Amino acid sequence: MTLSVPSARAVDLRVEPVDDVLDRVERSLQVRVDRDTVIRKRRSVGGRTDRGTWVRVERRSFQRIASQGGNGPETAAVLRGVVMPRWRAGLTWRDEHEPVMWRADETDFVTGKPVGQAALVIEDPRLPDEWWTGLNASLDVLATQPTPRVATPDTDSITQGLVDATIRPVFPEVPNLVIDEWTPAHGDLTWANVMGPEFCIIDWEDWGTAPRGLDAATLWGNALAVPALADRVWDERRPDLESRSGRLMALFICAKIVGPYAHEADPRLWPAREKATRLVGELQSF
Question: What is the pLDDT of residue 67?
Fold first, then answer.
């Protein structure tokens, strides 16, 4: 029997009032959040504290918690050899009026800035070689540490069914979409979630098992507006991206860009169409 989980209303924390939420976090964690440093995203809010740490607060629906849980940053704290902010403390509470949970995590403050202010980049960030070394070392070691969690890119649990439903309507000519390799992944490795110029990965709420190559394909797809950067990602993560699963993940990302929600102003659109043609040909003969 499948239990029904109530749905929560869609909320954008970039415009939703959050002062009461931050007040509660401050009281519980005994910190003060500098309101001048607060960064608001669609489903999370973060800011620097008076003890030199960072607090990130996320609103998560019961439906998402039922499928994955709500403690991604805490569970990621046990990962070894991955460059990320050190986790210090967490706080969770149930909303009094809606079927959602609020989760606050306090971590070390990371200097530097996200490489991209949004998921994609439209200018070459000119990352140093040391940055790429850090990326490769972190993704390689992450893939060796199994977890029962399932990654949730774009808040959806990544299953074989999701891969089929994303790729098949856009590229029906690919004969076989079965994923043959699954490994732990960050799950939301956009350019907004990697720091520079010193490498670090932030925002671990979506991490879990995923098809091999998901993280590399996410970075690559969101760099397509900067061909040299996209090529660098492909070269650095070639073992992942040129595996059969990795090619499918690259096509998975292309399908999201060129599929039914494609936007003609998206600078990734035409490069993604070109790359998708190549990937389809490769997968037809793989």
Answer: 65
